[in-house]
Amino acid sequence: MKKFLALICSLALLAMGVVAFAGCGGDALKIGVTNYPPMDYPDESGEWVGFDAELAEKAFGELGYEVEFVEIVWETKVTSLQSGEIDCIWNGMTVTDELRENILLSEPYMVNQQVLVIRTEDADKYTSQDDLSQAETIAFEGGSAADTILSEMENLTEDQLLSMEKQADTFLEVKTGSSDVAVVDIALAKEVAGQGDYADLTYVDIGFASEDFAVGFRKEDTQLCEQINEILAKYKEDGTIEALAEKYGVAV
C-alpha cells in the first residue's frame, strides 16, 4: 500500500511539474491576423512579418510563448477569438465601443486614421466627407473601422456601400473601376497606393477622426492582457516601438 501511495504521489508531482512548465513557456499562442502590410503580411517564404507581427512575436517571446499567426476573416474576428480558434487579435485593430463590450482590449499602442483610396485622375473629386455622396460604390472591409464610419454617415445609402472580406481587395475594386472609392487604414494606403500594380491610385485625407490600435483578448484573459500592457509600456519607453515604426514606415 505504501509503495502504491508513493507511486500515486510521484505521478501527481510529475503532472504538476508538467503543468507548471507549460504555464512558464512552450505554449504556442495563436494570433489572429489578416494580410495587411505593413502591419501583418507573409514574406516571400510565407513567414508572417510586419510591424504588428514583429511586435507581437517579441512581446509574447518575453513571456515564454511561441506564436502562430492564423489568417482570419476580419468581420468574424470576435467569434474566432471567443471560440478559441485564436488566442488574441493583433492586426491593426481600431478600438470601438462594440469591441469593448465583447472582448478585452490592451492599452492603445498606435494611432490610425481612415483615408480614401481613389484613382489619381479623380483626386479633385473627393476633398471632403460630403463628396463621398457622389460615389456610386464605396468599398471597405467588413467589420473594420471603415465599416463603422460609413454606416454612420447620413449622406450615404446602403446601395453605395460594398463590404468586402479583405481590406487589401478594395484596391483592385477601385483600380478596375468597380468601385469609385475605397476607405482603408492610412498605413495600408501608404504602403499600396501609388506602388506597383496600383501606381495609378492615390489616397486622400478627408478629415476622418484619428483612431487607436489595441490588442484584443478574451474577457477572461486579464492576466495576459495586463502582461502585454506592461511590455508595451516598456517598449514605448525604451524605443522598441519607435524603431519598429521606422523600420516599417508607420506613424505611432
TrEMBL record:
It comes from the Bacteria. The keyword Signal applies. Keywords: Signal. PANTHER family: AMINO-ACID-BINDING PROTEIN YXEM-RELATED, MEMBRANE-BOUND LYTIC MUREIN TRANSGLYCOSYLASE F. This is Transporter substrate-binding domain-containing protein. Pfam families: SBP_bac_3. Residues 28-252 form the Solute-binding protein family 3/N-terminal domain. SUPFAM superfamilies: Periplasmic binding protein-like II. Residues 1-22 form the signal peptide.
